[in-house]
Amino acid sequence: AAKAAGKNHFMRYAPEMRTRTELRLLLEHALRSALDAEDQLQVHYQAQQNLDGSLIGFEALVRWQHPQLGLISPAQFLPAAEEAGLMAALDESVLRMACAELRRWRESGWPQLRVAVNLSNQSFRREDLVDMAARAIAEAGVPPSSVELELTEDIVMENVGSAVNTMDRLCALGIHLSIDDFGTGYSSLSQLKRCPIELLKIDRSFITDVIHDESDHAITNAIIALAHKLGIKVLAEGVETQAQFDLLRQSGCDAIQGYLLSKPLPADALPAWLAARPR
Ligand code: C2E
Ligand code: MG
Ligand code: MG
Ligand code: MG
């Protein structure tokens, strides 16, 4: 009877397990071809603004335009891309598309704009990262000083010595570096001070309730004070309301990004968005 039950058990669960594996392989296969046919990868752009009102530029945020499934958000496919080891290829494609787009903004009357591109840990560990970035930027014909790379806290902490070396070489190109989602990872202050970082991006999770949650407010103020002592600027992510904006201004925050300013927009919506802004 036990054997029969065991067999039933197997019969019941085997198809599901096979389906899960198949699904993952399907997704992986689809992602590989999406990376080959670059038109399936889209980049949306979200504005970043200084507290004095001046526009810094836009963060490039990838989307997958699947022929049958429609627009898929990064949260839905980046984990599979990571598991499949596809993040380096994906980040490189996004960097190339973002730099090409940056060139169009700069040539259409916005020469001061910057673009910020996310780098996964897999990308950061590429042996040829610095060469790849230099080539992508040069081929797009934009100044390296108009490109920012957003790193994760984990990158910085994993192996500080070699991470700082890589960051120094990126900075030597003229690229700017920031740390994304700050406050959610495990960076230590002593390690942070060794990094050539220009900007900390406070994670949205601290900003959401910053008005009502005293701890979030205290954490936000502490991050700003610390960063400023280290000569680093601070941007708050996920700013949705004027009240949050006002509080962040009082706290001495340098810049914001969030729905208050703009949602991430497809590239072809940017000219109208820019035209509607006072210069
Ligand atoms: P992130 O880099 O922290 O980007 C900010 C995310 O917060 C974006 O989600 C953006 O749409 C969302 N967001 C911005 N402002 C607001 C707001 O006011 N309210 C709310 N509720 N959300 C806001 P998205 O585009 O879904 O991207 C999610 C994450 O995926 C990104 O977080 C980033 O970690 C990753 N990602 C996106 N594109 C790339 C890429 O090209 N390469 C890599 N390595 N990662 C990427
Ligand atoms: Mg980011
Ligand atoms: Mg972020
Ligand atoms: Mg975030």
Give a brief description:
With 279 residues, the protein is α/β, with parallel strands linked by helices. The chain has helices at residues 2-36, 74-83, 87-107, 121-124, 129-140, 153-158, 160-173, 189-192, 204-207, 214-229, 242-250, 270-275, and strands at 41-50, 55-66, 70-72, 114-118, 147-151, 176-182, 199-202, 233-236, 255-256, 265-266.
- Kindly report the average pLDDT value: 90
Q: Helical region count?
A: 12
Task: Report how far the terminal alpha carbons are from each other.
Answer: 79 Å
How many individual β-strands?
Answer: 10
- Strand content of the residues, in percent? 15-25%
Question: What letter string, H or E per element, gives the SSE order?
Answer: HEEEHHEHHEHHEHEHHEHEEH
Task: List the ions, cofactors and other small molecules found in this model.
Answer: ligand C2E, magnesium ion
Largest sheet, in brief, is:
8 strands, mixed, barrel
Organism: Aromatoleum diolicum
Protein name: EAL domain-containing protein
Keywords: Membrane, Transmembrane, Transmembrane helix
Verbal overview:
Residues 24-278 form the EAL domain. This is EAL domain-containing protein. The protein is α/β, with parallel strands linked by helices and 279 residues long. The protein contains twelve helices and ten strands. Helix 3 (87-107) runs parallel beside helix 5 and helix 5 packs parallel to helix 7. Bound molecules: ligand C2E and magnesium ion (3 copies).
